[in-house]
Amino acid sequence: MTSDIHRLSIREMGARLRDGSLSASVILDHYLHRIERLNPVLNAIIHLDAEGARKAAVQADERFAAKAPLSLLDGVPVAVKDNILVAGMPCVWGSRLFADFVADHDELPVRLLREAGAVIVGKTNVPEFTLRGFTGNPVFGVTGNPWDLELTPGGSSGGSVSAVAAGLVPYSLGTDGGGSIRRPAGYTGIVGLKTTISRIPRANGLPPLLADCEVIGPLARSIDDTRLVLSVLARPHSDDQHSLGFPPIAEEAAPVRPLNILFVERFGDAPVDVEIAAICREAAGSLKALGHSVSFGPLPLDLSAISANWQILANAGLAKLAADMPRYFDLVTPPFAEQARAGDRLKVPDYLAFLETIATFRVEAAQLFRDVDVVITPTSAANPWPKSTQFPPIIDSRDAGPRGHAIFTNWVNACGHPGLSVPAGWNAAGLPVGMQIVGAFGADDLLLDLAAQYEGAAPWADRWPAMAG
To answer: Does the annotation count 81 as an active-site position?
Structure first.
């Protein structure tokens, strides 16, 4: 029945496109109707290109009629986070500074999607400059969480996760510079992959604010959906030389050998919601039944220098942006004006010293993954909080600060390794809880294989928020 199209997996959708029982135009119309009905209360999609999407869907139908589909994503709709360039669409980046900017070209991953026949429906909401852990900005307002519209979906990929979790699109693209894919995926009960640096090649995008620590990754309902997106996007490309050493991601899951897994429940004495810790502990422990060795203990890495100096990257990036954009200080909100000024005051030796700290940390992280195959943590230390608030000030009855909820994620960006968030369960309030799985540099496919095995034992893709219908 066409009323349930949004409940199909990407693989199922593709099979029905190929056997002719569905058309790309019918699939698109189904999603456009859902966007029209649900997006006004969700505010996940902030620019809709129905005309362009319909044209792409018709072209896909012509290819299917000729038995010549371009890929497993041909004819399947997708939404793109509003800090990724899509030709002919606005890229506002959550800031009045870019309120009138329309991209004249596709960023490389978007070009790869187009070449694969994907139907791009529009752009998804972000916080200003994608540098906050909630999703709201002075141009488009605040995005809600489909599981509770008064709560945040997190950030900065909040619009992308909400669109997928509510069934407005089957998958979306996000970016992750400190947890911006993984934490929102955890808050909305879907899958979010922060890929290894350059596993998805990047080129011709917005100015980088976080050096090479920010990557593009997919957000989808299942591991198989995630794998299919990766099979199209994660391939070597000459426009990103760092991508040339990686093999393509396989289209099918592979058997998983017994792994040595370390579960880390908390970092030092930082607060973690008790219910989150218990749900993730149980989920990690269940991997023993799947044949893996699971140990429990602290993360054997010193994160203090990374955590203490992480803001240096964003401050320096914003200072460079301010130097390039004459109206920067007139149009950005005060916190980002202050960050740019702080970046301008930054001394070059201090910036270079932090880059050296990151390089040293990457060597230390590589050594960890010689002894451990996978590290598992909660994706976030806190449950979703009110959507108009930037962060939860209290976690487990303790003061947490602006980054308290985000402690588990940015070390993975610093070392450049892949990190995958999957649903670990639902709390007593009915909200999803995410579990983060981290692997060695380049081990994206291993994480997908392990997560597919876990999903087979504890499936989640058929669990939908009530508002999704």
So the answer is: yes
